Amino acid sequence: MNKKIIIIKQLPFIISIIAILSVVFDLGFDHKPVEQKFLQLIYLIALFVGVGSVSFRYFFKKTRPKINVMPFDFLLVLFILVLIFIELEFLIENNFTFLLFLNASIWVYLALILIFIRELASSSFDFRRMTLNPAQLFILSFLFIILVGTGMLLLPRATYTSISVIDALFTSTSAVCVTGLVVVDTGSFFTPFGQMTILMLIQLGGLGIMTFTSYFSYFFKAGSSYENQMLLSAMTNTEKIGEVFSTLKRIIIITFIIEAFGALFVFMSLDTAILSSFTDRLFFSVFHSISGFCNAGFSTLQNSFYEPAYRFNYPLHIIIAFLIILGGIGFPIVFNLLSYIKNNLKNLFYNFTESHERIRMHRIINVNTRLVLVTSILLTVGGTLLFYIFEYDHTLAEHGSWGKIVTAFFGSVTTRTAGFNTVDTSALTVPTLMLVLFLMWVGASPGSTGGGIKTSTLAIAVLNFINMAKGKEKIEVYKREIAQKSVNRAFAIITLSILVIFLSIFGVSMFDRDKGLLNISFECVSAFGTVGLSRGITATLSNPGKLIIIITMFIGRVSMLTIFIAVFRKLAQHEYRYPSEEVLIN
Question: Out of 105-114, 157-166, 344-353, 460-469, which region has the weakest mean confidence (pLDDT)?
Fold first, then answer.
């Protein structure tokens, strides 16, 4: 194809990128009137090009989108045209003043973002020429978001006072890796633009940028190549290649639905005497709902929910706790449970209508779901009971009977990768600290927004211990045998996690000896488990210490095993086997 034709086809995408960069420049810097007018001109050009690009695709058979995309494109073009008419003052001259509420910069920014997404999704990426394996692409996508986030947080209008590069990198990494450790107070140090940037990084980091870009690309185009589906299948742990995009769709839809309901319930639980402004309450609700579901632990409050005004707001604590649980239990588990509930409802309907149709419920709840649910319930209930016992006359003393139960429950849930706190973490007793360290190390469940070694890894390890004690060579549970590959992976993850945590503690101790071994150990385990709880030393760490915590947070999010897979070349499997021989272990 002629290079000029290719450039012309890519021109709308290039202009949309320029428009997005202009938005970042607009929001991140103060401007003179001349610069502001120039930016407005760029926006207007991008809007016109966006309308033309979306519309012209329908005139050519090769580029014509699918039928289900037409409603989106129609609404997008209509929205952009309204903004153009407002900008050209056409609506005022024709008495369409009821649409003037759209005469705000936020709507233009939204339109430009939608145009960018539309153009990005329509661009073709040939994965056959890509030399990166899924693990490498997964790691690089996180690195890319972290670096972009760091750049945006360094912009003058992202903070009220200047921020150092290491602190911006730390904050961006903590947000993308959904950790929650902070070196500066999120609510008072960052401007609304900076807080929105952090929120965007949390959402992208929680779900992964590949989830969004891959699904939108599939939605707006006629389909996807087999290579693309193979790549995404490996990245999303989807068993059937044909279900990759339906899985991505369900992940995005369920995430936004849960976060929307979470924000609504948080909004209803807030005291208007504390947050009188509707806008402040709305932003608080959205921010903490997304941060809770993504297990990020970021809060606009200086001391999280330990603030006096929120310390005894038990409905708020329960809402956030359930958001943490839903985000940390894992999307595969959620999908499996939804399938079970849906089929149960169908059978109830068939019974009610006396229909002969029935859905066989046998094995709808798979072994993975059973292991994760049982382990999660045991950890949550056990953690709540132990927290309640250890802290009854200590950090829970200021709460009543109901408050003690809720606070203990919240303490058990939040330590599993969330990082919010309703008690003074530095005042916890030593037995509670040991409990918290264990829960932070275990973390959430596979396929979730949380970190840690994961609940299924712990379950397999415990089952293996029991089987070895009984003299059994195979792990059998729920009338199924656990594959040896899963056992090997579980113990590799456990071993590597201990190695990473040890090296992290060793490294931080070299540069911040005055912080104390217990505090440093707590910080490093929290960083690896992407939890975000701290004993108050994060902001006072030296720059080398912060850098080690940054690396630990990143490894905790992508996992050391994934890094090893990305580095080492996968060898072909051979059919032959050497004679086996036992090695003395104990």
Answer: 344-353
Report residue 99's pLDDT band, with 50, 70 and 90 as the boundaries: low
Angle of helix 543-558 relative to helix 484-511, nearest 10 degrees, comes to 170
Among 551, 553, 560, CA closest to 534: 553
CA angle 382, 386, 387 (to 5 degrees): 115
Gap between the Cα atoms of 123 and 548, Å rounded: 38
CA 112, 115, 119: angle at the middle one, nearest 5?
A: 140
DSSP class per residue in 85-108? HHHTTHHHHTT-GGGGGG-SHHHH
Calpha distance 572→72 (Å, rounded): 46
Interacting residues of 392 by C-beta distance below 8 A, sequence separation 6+ = 404
Q: Which residue has the higher pLDDT, 172 or 354?
A: 172
For residue 3, the Cα-to-chain-centroid distance in whole angstroms is: 39
Residue 205 confidence (pLDDT): 85
- Are 332 and 446 within 8 A, CB to CB? yes
φ and ψ at residue 576, rounded to 5 degrees: -75, 160
pLDDT for 217 beyond 50: no
The closest alpha carbon to 172, from 156, 158, 157, belongs to 158
Helices and strands counted in the chain (H then E): 23, 2
Joined tokens for residue 222: 């006629």
CA distance 528 to 547: 13
| 543-558 and 560-567 helices, crossing angle to 10° | 80
Give residue 406's pLDDT.
Answer: 94
Residue 133 in this model has a pLDDT that exceeds 80 = no
State how far Cα 227 lies from the chain centre.
25
Query: pLDDT tens digits for 26-59?
Result: 888 888 888 888 988 998 898 888 888 888 877 7
CA–CA–CA angle 564, 567, 569 (5° rounding) = 105
In the block, which residue shows the tokens 């918290």? Answer: 436
Residues 6+ apart with CB under 8 A from 479: none
| Residue 177: closest CA among 557, 585, 584 | 557
pTM of the model: 0.85
Token reading at 113: 């973002």
Q: What is the mean pLDDT of the chain?
A: 82
Residue 159's SS3 state is strand
Tokens of 11: 């021109």
Best mean pLDDT range from 50-54, 69-73, 395-399:
395-399
Query: Who wins on pLDDT, 311 or 248?
Result: 311
Nearest to 253 by CA among 264, 243, 245: 245
Helices (H), ranges, 302-366: 314-328, 331-352
Write a three-state SS string for 413-460. Answer: HHCCCCCCCCCCHHHCCHHHHHHHHHHHHHCCCCCCCCCCCCHHHHHH
Helix (H, G, I), strand (E, B) or coil at 542: coil
